Amino acid sequence: MNRLNVKRRKEYKKQVVELLIKRRRRVFREMFLELHPTDQVEMFHSLDNILRKQVILFLNPEEFAEIFQGLDPEDQRAAYAELGSPYVISMFNHMSADDVADFLAQLEAGETQAILASMDQEEAERVIELMAYAPKTAGAIMTKEFISLEASSLTKDVIEELRQTAPEAETIYYLYVVDAEQKLVGVISLRDLIIASPQAMIRDIMSTQVVSVSEWSSQKETADLIKKYDFLAVPVVTNEGRLVGIITVDDVIDVLEEETTEDFGEFTASRGATDLTLGAFTAAKKRAPWIIILMFFGLATAELIGRFEETLQQIVLLAAFMPLIMGTAGNTGTQSLAVAVRGLAVGAIEKNGVWKIIKREFGTGLLLGLVCMVVLMGIIGLFYQGNWLLALIVGVSLFCALSIAAVIGATVPLIINKLKFDPAIASGPFITTLNDVLGLLIYFSIATLLLGSL
Q1: d(Cα 389, Cα 296) in Å, to the nearest integer?
Q2: How does strand 243-248 pair with strand 233-237?
Q3: Which among 305, 324, 448 has a CA at the least distance from the CA of 389?
Q4: Phi and psi (nearest 5°) for 192?
Q5: What are the φ and ψ backbone dihedral angles of 267, each rounded to 5 degrees?
Q6: Fold for domain 3-134?
Q7: Three-state SS across 134-159?
Q8: CATH superfamily membership of 280-452
Q9: Could you read off the pLDDT of 234-276 as tens digits, one per residue?
């Protein structure tokens, strides 16, 4: 979008807000409802509480449903608190069942049951079905608003039916064909439907090679499948092959964002604390366990240094290079960790093999260590009055530490993944601290060995 369009959109939104402030209901509705739903959500989010209430008064439940399902959970709860019961029930009846299920899952059981009892029976049954699935499964994120066809239908009849039913469906780009038992037997794209002869039967133009996911598949597996095939939607089936819903690409984008946020939290040892709406106390409580664990690792580092006190006394300058050894080894390990976790996430390691990634990272660590060793030995030799013993100790230590750190960074998440845990829990701080300890152990061991041989 060019600058002119952005400027015009901002001016348009400003006019809409002015109409809202002046309470010019009819003109406000005309201009506001012309906005893209995403812009409507963005505008509603930017308003203060008084103007938000005014928007709710000016829109009917069906119109506000589009905004409500686009809000984040915190804004949804705030808006919900302002709505009357009849308005809420009508709004939920016009929302997608999966969005209603997501919101009701945040409420108390009694309140949820009361809402479901007041909703249209068919809509309530869809919501109840979705809420029965375990979190993070395909069934939990699928939508029930899809179009299914019979194989014996004629193309012209299907097109006519779409004119009536398409507004209620999540997407019509893929149409799924089912038999008398509602088992998925084929799929046809909207494009193929349009270009086919009006008298053609669906069974003659549909594809029988349908890619689907089980209702109990994980949401990550589903996201990977849609990404792999570049689908706009994928059908969800039971173990018996019955079509029960579809998952669209916009749902998958939300899943990928959620998974990325979780992995980022694991990677930085701050899982559950990346939400900026959390208070300081809650954030501290969620981050404290990892910080305490890593603090004990720090105590191990202090104990290690104490055991090599005699070595330090022989060459006091050894202490000056401790942060360098620790930091460089930790950084190298974190880089390898990122490579391994990313490889696991996109399936590259499964495709190429575990040993190949370990071998590659070990080779990378050797080369990085060699380069750093040569550069550092030259610098120490020049700036520390030709103290080549110190240069040799630091250089060789750095070479060994980087080689091992790269292997550890790649291996730990692979082991954790093999144990069926999230590899991201091999977080950056954990790998960094582990490599700090090993780097110092290598550093002082080499220093003690070389000093003892003189």
Answers
A1: 33
A2: antiparallel
A3: 448
A4: -65, -35
A5: -65, -30
A6: MgtE N-terminal fold (1.25.60)
A7: CCCEHHHHCECCCCEEECCCEHHHHH
A8: SLC41 divalent cation transporters, integral membrane domain (1.10.357.20)
A9: 999 999 999 999 998 888 887 777 776 666 655 555 555 555 5
